Amino acid sequence: MLGSQLCILVLLGAVVPALQQRDQLSSLDHSNDYNYVRHDEEVQKTFCSWDCLKFTLQWPGAFCTYLNEKAKCVIPPEINTWTIHGLWPQKVYNCCGCWHLFPSDLEDLDEELSQEWPSFVKSKSYFQFWKMEWLKHGVCAACVEGLNSPIKYFSLCLKLRQQFNITRALSEGSVVPSCDHPYKLAELEEVLTPLIGEHHEIQCIKDKQARELWFQVKIPLSRNLTLGCPQRNPTAEHGPPPPAHPCPSQTPIYLVPIDHENPSKPCG
């Protein structure tokens, strides 16, 4: 309880000393994040300054092709659908290392989280994945009352997963996994837009055959959690572009099947 109160004070304006913050950030695995919080003055500007979130779902069949060969990918046999990747306030990361996450915080949600938010990396447990997402993104989201505790943050993510049931929408739109039948971006957007709005982002990665594989869907939400959120400068990013990219409009896009036996090579 005391730790949560202290963290809320930090989020409301107290500034973590620069040296302590540097040590905290360096202890986290943030290789895919960008360093938005660099100095004490910037901390004051960025804490709680976000306007938009992105609720991100990932397709396990493509995720495992995204990992390098050193990272063993495992898709549990009970996982056959889109899963949660995270709920991310935009343009803020690693806001504060002071609010730790413990297994007891999520024990009431463990079964549902294990189904809807699994880790596919063999060396990273489910809880390690959830903890990483909480430290990187959940603490930043805690400025909003409905997200200001681990149980609220993760519960909301599970509710959003049910609300945005893209698995059912795709099935009803005759979009099914296949190694042989690609789709056009316009076809996918036509199916998804009635459910998740027109400002979503469909992301792809390239496999070793240079095919575009549908990897993720990012669903924009405003600070009050309504669907859609126009950003003042959506193209402004820092650091190198990640391997995941917006799916091209003129190139065939594959929704590859989930292969539990050989997850890194779903199409052989």
Plain-language structure description:
This protein is an alpha+beta fold and 268 residues long. It has helices at residues 2-11, 18-26, 40-46, 60-66, 110-116, 126-141, 150-163, 166-172, 185-196, and strands spanning 52-58, 83-89, 201-206, 212-222, 245-246, 253-254. Strands 1, 2, 3, 4, 5 and 6 form a 6-stranded mixed beta sheet that branches. The termini are far apart.
Task: Summarize the topology.
Elements: H1 2-11, H2 18-26, H3 40-46, E1 52-58, H4 60-66, E2 83-89, H5 110-116, H6 126-141, H7 150-163, H8 166-172, H9 185-196, E3 201-206, E4 212-222, E5 245-246, E6 253-254
Parallel strand pairs: 4-6
Antiparallel strand pairs: 1-2, 1-4, 3-4, 3-5
- Stretches where pLDDT falls below 50 for ≥5 residues? 8-45, 233-241
Structural class: alpha+beta
The total of beta strands comes to 6
What coarse outline follows from CA principal-axis ratios?
globular
Distance between the termini: 51 Å
Helix content: 25-40%
Instruction: Characterize the largest beta sheet: strand count, sense, and whether it forms a barrel.
Output: 6 strands, mixed
Radius of gyration: 19 Å
- SS field, number of helical segments: 9
Q: What is the percentage of strand-forming residues?
A: 5-15%
Mean pLDDT over the full residue set: 82
The ordered H/E elements are HHHEHEHHHHHEEEE
